[in-house]
Structures are given as C-alpha cells and as structure tokens.
Records
---
Amino acid sequence: MIVEIKINYEKCIRCKECIKVCSYGVLEWLDDMPVVVNPKSCALCLECEKNCPVNAITHEEK
Ligand code: SF4
Ligand code: SF4
C-alpha cells in the first residue's frame, strides 16, 4: 500500500507538534513549515494526524 501524507498549509498554524511526535524522521521543519521529507519511512502510526490541533494532516491511499 502506498500512502500519501498531505499537509494543508492553509490550515497549519506552524505549531511543530507533528514534528515532535513523528519518531520515524518523515517530517522536518523547513522554511518555517512542516515538510514531508521521507514518505517511505512513514509507519502509519497516525500520531501526527492525531496531534495536529487543526487537522491539517491527512494520509491518503494512492
Ligand atoms: S503517521 Fe506516524 S510515521 Fe507517519 S508521518 Fe505521521 S507521525 Fe510520522
Ligand atoms: S501539527 Fe498541524 S498545525 Fe502543527 S505544524 Fe504540524 S501540520 Fe501544522
């Protein structure tokens, strides 16, 4: 299964929570925003989704 991690930058309030909770190095803070840098490392733990206060992150099956 291939999963696409989507970040809605219009919703994102730049709180860095998703960066803090991802233990797999999938997300990095770049240019003052969270960026998906290693999508293949995603373990689908959904911690980033669950901890985003504005529901800006979603995972979609391709
Ligand atoms: S689902 Fe888990 S492993 Fe994947 S980006 Fe979110 S926190 Fe990281
Ligand atoms: S947790 Fe949500 S609001 Fe906070 S930086 Fe990540 S995507 Fe943006």
---
Amino acid sequence: MKKVILTLLIGGFIMTGLSANPSTSSGTAGTLAFVYFSATGTTERMAKNAAKEMGADIFEIQPVHKYTDADLNWHDKKSLSSIECNDPKSRPAIKAVVSTSSNTAFDISGYDTVVVCYPIWWAYAPKIVYTFVESHNWSDKKLITLCTSGGSGLGRSGTDLSKFAKGVDFKGGKDFTRSSGADVKKFIEGLLK
Ligand SMILES: Cc1cc2nc3c(=O)[nH]c(=O)nc-3n(C[C@H](O)[C@H](O)[C@H](O)COP(=O)(O)O)c2cc1C
C-alpha cells in the first residue's frame, strides 16, 4: 500500500512539473509569447513592459533593412513605408525573430498564444508583420494583436492580419500606446479566460 501511495505521489509531482508554464506566471492557460516589431521604440517599450509583467518570453522581429527616418516619412508618397503600405503584396524580408534576452530564435511550436505587437502604419500593421504571420503555422494557436499608434487605434489591423495567419484562433486586440504592463496583462487574461 505504501508503495502505491508513494508511486501516486511521485506521479503527481511529475505531472505538476510537466504542466507548469515556464513562460508565464500570469495565470493564463497555456504558454504565451510576445513578438513585436518596432521602428522607433514605442511598441518595443509597451511589449517589454507587458512581457515583464506577465513573466512571458519576448521576441523581436528584426528587418533585413532597418527603417531610416526617411523611410518612415509618411508625408512622402515615395518613402519606403508609403510604398510598402500601398502595396498589398509587399512582404519585407525578416532577418531574424529573436529573444530579446537570450538570442534564441522564435519557435511557434513552443507556445499556445502569440501576442503580436506593432505600430499602426496607415491604419494597419506594417507589412513586415504580415511577413511574420504568413511564415508560421497557426493551427491550434491563439493570436492577440496589440498596437501603438498616434491616436487612430487598432482599427481593423488585427482582423486583417489574422486573415493571413492560416488556421489561427484570433482572440482580439487593442491599442496600448499609453498603458502600463499591468493594463495589458489584465486585457490578455480577460481574452484568454
Ligand atoms: C509610416 C507611418 C505611418 C503611420 N500611420 C499612422 C496611422 O495611420 N495612425 C496613427 O494613429 N499613427 C500612425 N503612425 C504613428 C505610429 O503608429 C506611432 O508613432 C507608433 O507608436 C510608433 O511605434 P514604434 O515607435 O514602435 O515604431 C504612423 C507612423 C509611421 C512611421
């Protein structure tokens, strides 16, 4: 009998260990990662604060071509960002999607939920974020989209992006330009309840 109880206890400990989530201490079900693209640092700040608050892994989408001030000039119809935003087929190349703390490459198979964070460019996500979502297999994955903006908000950007994430379960999104990591955590926990 003692042996049976001991076996059950050890089994219980092993199961608890296996189901523990190393990526989040948020109480949300399953593992969660933040993946962000940021040209001038606002989205990076928002995503890093939120990931820290949730104890989640965080990865940066690094472009092959780093955007210059001239590239980001929305007054210029010929700037790189204007050209990309006006071309539905534009898919700027990604150099790497890497962890900001360990230089590890992003691997979607390790996560149940991916929180994609980006700045609003002409009411939508920058095209490089489309490159990111199109290059992953989203079946059985949940997607949340967070943005920063000059004031126009998330709009249809999350819904549009989710169309290119084949098989995804899109949970929703929000503009968190002027919010704390705790605000983001509360929002995400609400979506994943
Ligand atoms: C090319 C370009 C287009 C933009 N279009 C919009 C827009 O349509 N609506 C808006 O509110 N802000 C717009 N913005 C402002 C950015 O969304 C905002 O400054 C954002 O926080 C920048 O994030 P980042 O520092 O992470 O790149 C635009 C910025 C750029 C560079």
